[in-house]
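User: Let's play a game. I give you a shape written as tokens, and you guess the letters that built it. Ready? Here's round one.
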């Protein structure tokens, strides 16, 4: 299905489009589960990262999520406004903002089990090993990040 050398190929032959459209479809699948929780997908992945490791700096969280601070800060402000987390200046360095889950933010993890399991259930029903996909996409992401640094 590869495009001939020197020609861009069709839309369906583009890896970037396959990833983009799969991502859009997965977001649609998550949407009903997340809307019950009052979350957007970016808010959900932010909480996933904090459930994994709480009390981090905005910079650490941005690196973990591959988000720039100017994208992450408004998202954190919205999560703080609804009581899921707090943002506080680090007393050792006022330039550093630390992010911590609230009790409500921690409790939301239990309520998010439907969203957490929906893609895994779908993959199991299709006989798809998600670990293989996750590893391959993570490796591709790292290669793309390295290539972007070189340009």
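Assistant: Ready! My guess for every position:
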């Amino acid at each position: 299905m590869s495009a001939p050398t020197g020609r861009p190929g069709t839309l369906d032959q583009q890896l970037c489009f396959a990833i983009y459209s799969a991502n859009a479809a997965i977001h649609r699948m998550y949407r009903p589960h997340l809307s019950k929780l009052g979350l957007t997908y970016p808010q959900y992945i932010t909480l996933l990262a904090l459930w994994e490791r709480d009390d981090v700096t905005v910079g650490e969280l941005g690196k973990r999520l591959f988000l720039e601070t100017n994208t992450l800060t408004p998202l954190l402000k919205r999560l703080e406004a609804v009581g899921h987390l707090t943002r506080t200046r680090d007393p050792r360095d006022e330039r550093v903002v630390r992010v911590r889950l609230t009790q409500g933010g921690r409790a939301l993890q239990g309520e998010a089990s439907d969203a957490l399991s929906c893609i895994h259930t779908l993959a199991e029903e299709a006989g798809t090993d998600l670990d293989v996909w996750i590893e391959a996409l993570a490796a591709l992401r790292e290669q793309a990040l390295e290539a972007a640094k070189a340009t």
